[in-house]
């Protein structure tokens, strides 16, 4: 979908959206393809502090240039748009998982890193330390649910098109602090 449609979809789902800089044209499209898109990927940032987290996700760091996702969901439940197009969030993942997402089947265990995820997933980074102790405020989890549902609604996808980074790329642990099964159940209910 276009950047404008993305913004509209998020707002229509009832989200408070903050547009950061020229997010519509901030991407990594010069480094590889973007699309066709097949799903939504959820992450935690392993950072704290909304402002700092948003800046990091927009700018990236020397080893990994930004944008590091499309939307950053801070603890207050706001969605900060930092980029649109190809973004450095998904890395290489498992082609069997991608096939399952496309078919909206039960996910197999991710045991390969052979497929470019930045091409085919929308990415939402969520402000959380990911240490298993940092709380996930209800308003933030609700925003994750709404953001994922907004994208699924636009594309006509079910909740099975929503996955966690840890379900895609071997070795990843994010998001930590809630289960993706519980989040998919919430997205399912929202899409009814
Ligand atoms: Zn991640």
Structural commentary:
The chain is an alpha/beta fold and 192 residues long. The protein has a single domain (3-191), classed as Peptidoglycan recognition protein-like (Lysozyme-like), CATH 3.40.80. Helices cover 31% and strands 17% of the residues. The chain is built from five helices and ten strands. It has helices spanning 3-12, 50-59, 95-103, 138-155, 180-191; strands at residues 17-19, 39-44, 60-61, 64-65, 71-73, 79-81, 92-93, 115-116, 121-126, 162-164. The strands form three sheets. Strands 1-6-5-9-2-10 form a six-stranded mixed sheet, sandwiched between helices. Strands 3-4 form a two-stranded antiparallel sheet. The chain is globular. The two termini are 22 Å apart. The model has no long low-confidence stretch (mean pLDDT 97). Bound molecules: zinc ion (ZN). Zinc ion (ZN) binds next to loops.
* Helix and strand sequence: HEEHEEEEEHEEHEH
Low-confidence stretches: none
Number of helices: 5
Name the helicity range. 25-40%
CATH homologous group name: Peptidoglycan recognition protein-like
Q: Find the structural class using helix and strand composition.
A: alpha/beta
* Reported CATH architecture: 3-Layer(aba) Sandwich
Bound small molecules, deduplicated = zinc ion
Domain N-acetylmuramoyl-L-alanine amidase: 23-176
Protein name: N-acetylmuramoyl-L-alanine amidase
GO molecular function: N-acetylmuramoyl-L-alanine amidase activity
InterPro entries: Amidase/PGRP_sf, Amidase_domain
